Amino acid sequence: MGNHLLKSDFYFELPQELIAQDPLEERSSSRLLVLDRHTGEVSHHVFREIGDFLRPGDCLVMNNTKVIPARLLGEREGTGAHVELLLLKRKSSDVWETLVRPGKKCRPGTKLTFGDGLLQAEILETVEEGNRLVRFSYEGIFEEVLDRLGEMPLPPYITHKLKDKNRYQTVYAKYEGSAAAPTAGLHFTKELLRQLEDKGIRLAYVTLHVGLGTFRPVKEENVLEHHMHSEHFQVSEETADLINRTKAEGGRIICVGTTSCRTIESAADEKGLLHPCSEDTDIFIYPGYEFKVLDGLITNFHLPESTLIMLVSALAGRDHVLTAYQEAVREKYRFFSFGDAMLVI
User: Fold this and answer.
1) Pairing of strands 95-101, 82-90
2) Distances (CA, A) of 319 to 33, 36, 232, 240
3) What is the Cα–Cα distance from 32 to 55, expressed in whole angstroms?
4) Partners of 83 in beta bridges
5) Is the peptide bond before 69 cis (omega within 30 degrees of 0)?
6) Closest CA to 146 of 114, 122, 124
7) Which residues touch 198 (CB under 8 Å, ≥6 apart)?
8) Nearest to residue 283, comparing CAs of 236, 232, 230, 233?
9) Could you tell me if 129 and 136 are in contact, meaning their C-beta atoms sit under 8 angstroms apart?
10) How big is the CA angle at 334 (ends 333 and 337), to the nearest 5 degrees?
């Protein structure tokens, strides 16, 4: 492999109209492409049939982060000029690192107001990548104010407005902190999870707060020069034990989403044992990576040249993945956050 991996190696032709703009009415009725990572063989199914490919004793690992309605539309105090704020990371109770658009006029000291003054913000300083630290002031509880005023921060490729906030949230979302949903999990319903448990499939939960860096395009032609953003994750003792026990008993570890995958691979030691932890990871998985824990992956269809398609290629091999993707395009699968799913096993 050497120190060279070209972005253009992960290019494929994706017609714009295959990027899903709206979620399906029924979560588990999305399509499911199953890719055998050893042979490259592909078959077509419906997501609710996922249990047919799992065995009793396997363990599904899910990211139970909750997306916060992190997009705020307001105005600059005094001028009334429109401003958009995206919450990226909480620094202390009322101080957040944010992305402000347009940023030019938002110098330290600038005051912003949202929802007719229900929420106010002052810009404290400019930090790396032009992000701004802001301090909020409000009456009551911040989360409640945010829930009233904030919108879901959909990825830039999705231009439609979301009718129901909950459709960009997994049914098992629990801990608030993400700027984007771990979208592979959107296909599960509570009922489907119950059926899987009844079949003897174990469910394990980890938490990784997804940053918008997930969608940051790779700019360097040599992929190895791409700087991965850092995200906070937590693995509990209970989850570490469950995953280690599953491995020891010969069950497979199947991650729901690239975020769960990056979490357990970050929390594992060289022997593939998981340890409880709470830290930041900027792990970048691309072909040549040796997986320590993961045996299979449920994931959506990603954009050309993205770090996500590189991660899937690390698991199944670039040629297998690109061939499967070409078939998905031919079969008009729906791509990206609200799109269809793929099981790599």
Assistant:
1) antiparallel
2) 16, 12, 32, 33
3) 17
4) 74
5) no
6) 114
7) none
8) 230
9) no
10) 140
The pLDDT tens digits of the residues spanning 282-338 come to: 999 999 999 999 999 999 999 999 999 999 999 999 999 999 999 999 999 999 999
Give the pLDDT confidence of 138-194 residue by residue, as tens digits. 999 999 999 999 999 888 888 898 888 899 999 999 999 898 899 999 999 999 999
- Residue 281 CA to residue 181 CA, distance in Å, equals 17
CB 287 within 8 A of CB 313: yes
- Whether pTM > 0.85 for this model: the answer is yes
CB-neighbour burial class of residue 31 (10 A; exposed 0-12, middle 13-18, buried 19+)? buried
Tokens at residue 272, please? 């593939």
The CA distance from 211 to 181, in Å, is 9
- The Cα 281–Cα 299 span in angstroms is 20
For residues 124 and 23, give the distance between their C-alpha atoms in angstroms, rounded to a whole number: 38
At 144, is the secondary structure helix, strand, or coil? Answer: helix
For residue 229, the surrounding DSSP H or E stretch is: none
Q: How many whole angstroms from its chain centre is CA 150?
A: 19
CA 316 to chain centre: 20
